[in-house]
Recover the amino acids of this structure.
């Protein structure tokens, strides 16, 4: 996803000299072309993420559209007070780019995991939160983030995420996008785990269980109208996210469902339990532990449907 992001940002920067890219000493093998083409639009501030947000805010309030890039855990946790006070309070057009979302940097241990960042960012006033599912959505989200000219948290995977779409979809901020239609249940997913959610639905379809899959690429503002409609049309709703089950996509969806006065659907949140991992390993290894592989998601959803 990060390569899709920088490819799109390079196109945008060529057309708009007000676009600035800041990095906190990251993006090597990714940003070289951008830095060479636009030396006056690229700054490496060093390992100083809070300072990066301060610089970004100043540039943004001076008329620039600023992308501030770091590993998602550092871009969100280390900088939170500065994002709140310098960016969101002033509605500054700063796009905080969190690369390596969820378990992407699992090999580096708990300090590098971004598994509570959605909870933090969606709690901030004036903040738009985008979590694209694949490189296609990542390019779209980059364009939209620049167009909004307001605070954005852009949550990216790392690299190697498969492309989900056969053709360019019609995407819109705040509107979920149907990836697969189905009648028995619906999966709402966001970010780089959407592919696994789709594969789990395809696995279940082979067993006679028809499941729809929707990418909620905009976690904030979330598609309330769609969720209310789904609650009326489906008896079973599942959320899937590579994020803590506390405060993320599942929480956002449940907040809406809880306020529906009519009979509510059965609801399942699939994500990372509220704990730090006890084991070290790759992203795929931790996905198996947390039940986020297509196979384990299929089993859990099947059990959920049978139990209900």
């Amino acid at each position: 996803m990060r390569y899709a992001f920088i490819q799109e940002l390079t196109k945008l920067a060529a057309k708009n000299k007000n676009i600035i890219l800041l990095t906190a000493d990251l993006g090597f093998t990714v940003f070289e072309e951008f830095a060479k083409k636009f030396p006056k639009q690229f700054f490496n501030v060093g390992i100083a993420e809070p300072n990066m947000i301060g610089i970004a805010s100043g540039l943004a309030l001076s008329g620039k559209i600023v992308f501030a890039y770091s590993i998602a855990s550092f871009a969100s946790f280390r900088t939170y007070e500065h994002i709140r006070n310098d960016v969101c309070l002033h509605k500054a057009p700063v796009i905080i780019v969190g690369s390596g979302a969820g378990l992407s940097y699992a090999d580096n241990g708990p300090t590098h995991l971004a598994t509570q960042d959605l909870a933090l960012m969606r709690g901030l006033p004036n903040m738009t939160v985008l979590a694209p599912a694949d490189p296609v959505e990542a390019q779209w989200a980059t364009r939209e983030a620049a167009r909004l000219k307001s605070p954005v948290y852009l949550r990216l995977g790392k690299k190697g995420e498969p492309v989900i779409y056969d053709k360019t979809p019609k995407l819109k901020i705040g509107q979920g996008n149907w990836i697969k239609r189905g009648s028995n249940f619906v999966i709402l997913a966001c970010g780089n785990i959407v592919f696994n959610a789709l594969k789990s639905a395809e696995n279940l379809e082979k067993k006679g269980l028809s499941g729809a899959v929707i990418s909620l690429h905009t976690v904030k503002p979330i598609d309330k109208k769609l969720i209310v409609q789904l609650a009326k049309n489906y008896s079973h709703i599942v959320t899937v996210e590579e994020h803590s089950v506390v405060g993320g996509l599942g929480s956002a969806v449940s907040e809406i469902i809880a306020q529906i006065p009519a009979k509510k659907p059965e609801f399942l949140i699939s994500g990372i339990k509220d704990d730090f991992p006890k084991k070290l390993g790759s992203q795929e290894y931790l996905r198996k532990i947390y039940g986020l592989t297509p196979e384990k998601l299929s089993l859990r959803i099947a059990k959920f449907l049978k139990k209900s």
